[in-house]
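Sharing a chain and its predicted structure for anyone who wants a worked example. Both blocks are below, sequence first, tokens second.
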Amino acid sequence: MIKDTRERVIKAAEALFQKKSYQDVGVREIARAAGCSHTAIYQYFKTKDSILYAVAEEPLERLYVTCLAVCEKQISKKEKLLQLCQVYIDFGFRERNFYDLLILYHGQRVDQATSEQPIHQLRMKSFYLLQESVSDLLPEDMNVEEKLNISRAVFIFLHGLVTIYSSDYQECPEWVRQMLLDYLHYTILRKKI
């Protein structure tokens, strides 16, 4: 019964977060949708943010595991970066209904040493894999800050593709994939930085 109520709360919150902004969804509304009292929710979750973490944990962990599997493949560094970027874009299109919430809410800069937000820590696991893959393709004499800035730029480009185009498509269209390839080939894979 305990696990059932907790799962109902997570599923209800996920459905509500996909329809409305996080700020517009209250704990009482989640409770109604889950078929329990709002006080029952607090037996499982201390705050609404902890409900968000429970909703975001599975998709963000799946993103990380998929990225990690790409990183462990015996493929070229270029192919690794291309596949990582495609994994991220596919994730964004698949999770388009609450992508902004998964990726942006309680976000912080990547150069901050620690984060107190568990959702941000989950996001960063995937970003660090992307950052490492980008850095592997950059000249060794580049400093750490320059490499971080280029990794951020790649992430921002990916984020932009998802944000701009995912609302109109169920899956990533081929022309968006081509835009990604063109961008990476011009900025990192061919060009000497």
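Comments welcome. The longest helix spans residues 48-71.
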